[in-house]
């Protein structure tokens, strides 16, 4: 196991790889800033590197990830001027329900590709739970191989189905040898009930969306609609928001349905509007002296020529040529 600011860093090996990339990025920028400004204090160097990490994460999220997930619906996110009256806090529906959408994107096996472009045997997801060292310590198949594999791997569809590793073996079985695991979708359903979030029909109304009147309004997939009706005894008002949201037909050009799209747009718009130092604002710009010394920092602005591919190329052995031009899209 590895220590991190997030206790979940070792939850699965690909998550550990992503944490590793961000730690390397922070240290790389700190080294560059310290070398460029030898008179700067350790605290000043740390704060500047911390600011760079925050700007980079926001830039990737708003300019690359949200357009891939929301399609044209992502347009309002990150736009507009700073508004001191906007509450930029994280909404309980977003954190408890909508942003759990990533669980359905997870695959049951982690692809790996070596530096020569050869596909290595995939790693079963359940075998990596809290066992990162077993898969990261191999020079030929460590962080780089996992990230190459992830970059060329198509994520799962956003729907009501999670892979067996998340519903049968999560934190148990093949991963930790502790017997059965926990069902992540069941946990998500219970989490929503514990947190008192509205059920699916009321949640849609809260976001200004039409109230469905039948399970056929939730999804055009007749089989899924019938299964939901059977599971909830025909009571649409009882449908949990996490289940209904995952079952919805996707918005045009996006990967999620209308409810989750509305929740994500609301949250990410408020996060930006309520943050005076949001990466896209002049107030967040790095001082000219620092940009002159470390030019890369000048590209961590809205529209700047920098993205996730640059981050990976700078912090791993993965080259830009090995990565898709649109890194969050499965381009042919």
UniProtKB/TrEMBL annotation:
<feature type="binding site" description="axial binding residue">
    <location>
        <position position="103"/>
    </location>
    <ligand>
        <name>heme b</name>
    </ligand>
</feature>
<dbReference type="GO" id="GO:0046872">
    <property type="term" value="F:metal ion binding"/>
</dbReference>
<dbReference type="GO" id="GO:0004601">
    <property type="term" value="F:peroxidase activity"/>
</dbReference>
<keyword id="KW-0964">Secreted</keyword>
<dbReference type="Pfam" id="PF03098">
    <property type="entry name" value="An_peroxidase"/>
</dbReference>
<keyword id="KW-0479">Metal-binding</keyword>
<keyword id="KW-0325">Glycoprotein</keyword>
<dbReference type="GO" id="GO:0020037">
    <property type="term" value="F:heme binding"/>
</dbReference>
<keyword id="KW-0349">Heme</keyword>
<keyword id="KW-0408">Iron</keyword>
<dbReference type="InterPro" id="IPR019791">
    <property type="entry name" value="Haem_peroxidase_animal"/>
</dbReference>
<dbReference type="GO" id="GO:0005576">
    <property type="term" value="C:extracellular region"/>
</dbReference>
<dbReference type="GO" id="GO:0006979">
    <property type="term" value="P:response to oxidative stress"/>
</dbReference>
<protein>
    <recommendedName>
        <fullName>Peroxidase</fullName>
    </recommendedName>
</protein>
<dbReference type="InterPro" id="IPR037120">
    <property type="entry name" value="Haem_peroxidase_sf_animal"/>
</dbReference>
<dbReference type="InterPro" id="IPR010255">
    <property type="entry name" value="Haem_peroxidase_sf"/>
</dbReference>
